[in-house]
Write a structure and sequence with these properties.
Distance between the termini: 41 Å
Largest sheet: 6 strands, mixed
CATH class of the largest domain: Alpha Beta
Helix content: 10-25%
Radius of gyration: 21 Å
Strand content: 15-25%
Oligomer: single chain
Mean pLDDT: 76
Number of strands: 10
Number of helices: 5
Length: 196
């Protein structure tokens, strides 16, 4: 079943207690899917994608014997979080290679316990692709090639020096601002919604 078909299916409106609602087409094949393996003999892993603007189910697949439901990292002691855009524009411009380069450099420098990385979907700066965002500093980087990614890890994450030539936004008390000398596309102004 494709995602397009998945979105158009009718949902099981009356699941049994403890069951997750599933499309009728899947229910007819697999029965109700329980919240844990105790509720059903067939259990599915639900993969979820998250961006700052949306959350949704990406796909379902049968859980393999002995497989953990999802990865849950202990982030206690983590000092920085890097969001690496894996949206379609970023991926076309080397987002996968950039993701791997950043993660490998973090491992090479033994910084895994201090820096957490997350792949995201589109962050809305496609003309600057690939994009990486470093928190808690709130620095957005553009054109992050694998080489730039490893430099971000070494200079920004390990030593605390922002790469001004690649920074497109930094967080301040006024919100996100473009650093002085930043050569980035301004972009489309977000509409201000009126309160009703």
């Amino acid at each position: 079943m494709s995602l397009k078909e998945f979105g158009k299916t009718q949902w099981n409106d009356e699941p049994k207690s403890g069951d997750l609602p599933i499309p009728k087409k899947l229910q007819s094949t697999y029965g109700n899917i329980g919240r844990s393996a105790e509720h059903t003999s067939l259990f599915f892993c639900v993969y979820i994608f998250c961006t700052p603007m949306s959350i949704g189910v990406l796909f379902l697949r049968k859980k393999r014997k002995g497989e953990c439901d999802m990865t849950t990292w202990n982030l206690q002691g983590t000092k920085q979080h890097v969001f690496i855009c894996n949206g379609s524009s970023c991926m076309r411009k080397g987002g996968e290679e950039t993701t791997q380069a950043i993660r490998n450099e973090i491992t090479n420098l033994n910084l895994d316990s201090l820096i957490h990385t997350t792949r995201t979907r589109c962050n809305g700066r496609c003309k600057d692709a690939p994009v990486a965002i470093v928190y808690p500093d709130g620095i957005w980087y553009k054109n992050v090639t694998p080489e730039v990614g490893t430099t971000i890890v070494r200079r920004h994450l390990a030593e605390g020096h922002c790469l001004q030539e690649h920074a497109i936004y930094q967080y301040s008390e006024e919100g996100f601002i473009q650093p002085e000398g930043s050569e980035c596309i301004e972009g489309i102004q977000k509409a201000v919604k009126e309160k009703v």
